[in-house]
């Protein structure tokens, strides 16, 4: 089953050294998951200051800088996994470094039927 792990945290909760250590450890985990055939994709995101939000209302497009939610925790990255079950996804989420300072939200991906041309 496919799961998306969404990584949330305060952008200012890491020192530069901690952030670098987090990236190195996260890359090690990604390499191992890839070897096991469990990792589809993963990436950190640029800070919220680099975000652009798009809304369409009544056919009109509205574009703003950043996200709308005013919260201390921001979406900082993701892992896309293909594992046996939720327990396997939870075990992986608990291993990734951002879980120590933020939140890892786990969501199953809704299976879509194949579209034929």
UniProtKB/TrEMBL annotation:
Residue limits of the YCII-related domain? 1-111
- Give a single Pfam family match: YCII
Q: In which family does this protein belong, per the annotation?
A: Belongs to the YciI family.
Q: What is this protein called?
A: YCII-related domain protein
Q: Which organism is it from?
A: Thalassoglobus polymorphus
> What taxonomic classification does the UniProt entry list for its organism?
Bacteria, Pseudomonadati, Planctomycetota, Planctomycetia, Planctomycetales
């Amino acid at each position: 089953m496919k799961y998306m792990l969404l990584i949330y945290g305060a952008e200012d909760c890491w020192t530069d050294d901690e952030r670098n250590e987090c990236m190195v450890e996260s890359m090690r985990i990604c390499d191992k998951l890839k070897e096991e055939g469990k990792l589809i994709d993963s990436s950190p995101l640029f800070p919220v200051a680099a975000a652009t939000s798009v809304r369409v209302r009544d056919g009109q497009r509205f574009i703003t800088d950043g996200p709308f939610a005013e919260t201390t925790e921001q979406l900082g990255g993701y892992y896309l996994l293909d594992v046996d079950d939720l327990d396997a996804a939870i075990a992986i989420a608990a291993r990734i470094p951002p879980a120590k300072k933020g939140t890892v939200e786990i969501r199953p991906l809704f299976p879509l039927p194949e579209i034929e041309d």
